[in-house]
Amino acid sequence: MITYELCLLLRVMPKKELAATLKRTATAIFDKSGFIRKIENLGTRDMPYKTSSHGVVYNKASYFLIEMNVPPSTVEELKEEYSRDVDIIRRRVYKKIPPSEAECTLHEEMLPAPYRKDVQELIASSKKLQKPRFSYNSGLDYYPFQK
Amino acid sequence: MSLILRKCFQNVQISSLLKNTRVLMPVRNVGSEVSDADVPKFDMENPFLKEKQQCILCKHKIDPDYKNVKLLSQFQSPYTGRIYGRHITGLCKAKHEKLESEIVKSQSAGLMTVYLKEPCFIKDPKLFDAERPIRPHRF
Ligand SMILES: [Zn+2]
Question: Do you know which InterPro entries this protein is assigned to (chain A) (predicted)?
Answer without folding.
Answer: Ribosomal_bS6 (IPR000529), Ribosomal_bS6_sf (IPR035980), Transl_elong_EF1B/ribsomal_bS6 (IPR014717)
